[in-house]
Amino acid sequence: MTYIKSWVDFERAAEKLYLANPMKVRYTMKYRHSDGALVLKFTDDAVCLQYKTEVQHDLKKIDRLMTNLMRHMVSSDK
Q1: Is 1 inside any structural domain?
Q2: Separation CA 41–CA 33 (nearest Å)
Q3: What phi-psi label fits residue 45: left (phi over 0), alpha (psi between -120 and 50 degrees) or beta?
Q4: What is the DSSP string of 25-45?
Q5: Which of 5, 28, 45, 64 falls 20 to 30 Å from 53 in CA-CA distance?
Q6: What global pTM score does this model have?
């Protein structure tokens, strides 16, 4: 599994993956202390998207993505 290098590409692909099949998509967020990296992984068992960052200001971008996905989850638009 490879990592997507660009945050913008990862964000678009993750949202597209979620909107394609919201009931199958799941994500994990893992902090690896040994190398100081935060790893995000989105998957629907067919497609796996990964993003790794070691920069603290990327946490704000991650928070914005999670907020956006939560809005999709609670909206009545299907």
Answers
A1: no
A2: 17
A3: left
A4: -EEEEEEETTTTEEEEEEE-S
A5: 45
A6: 0.86
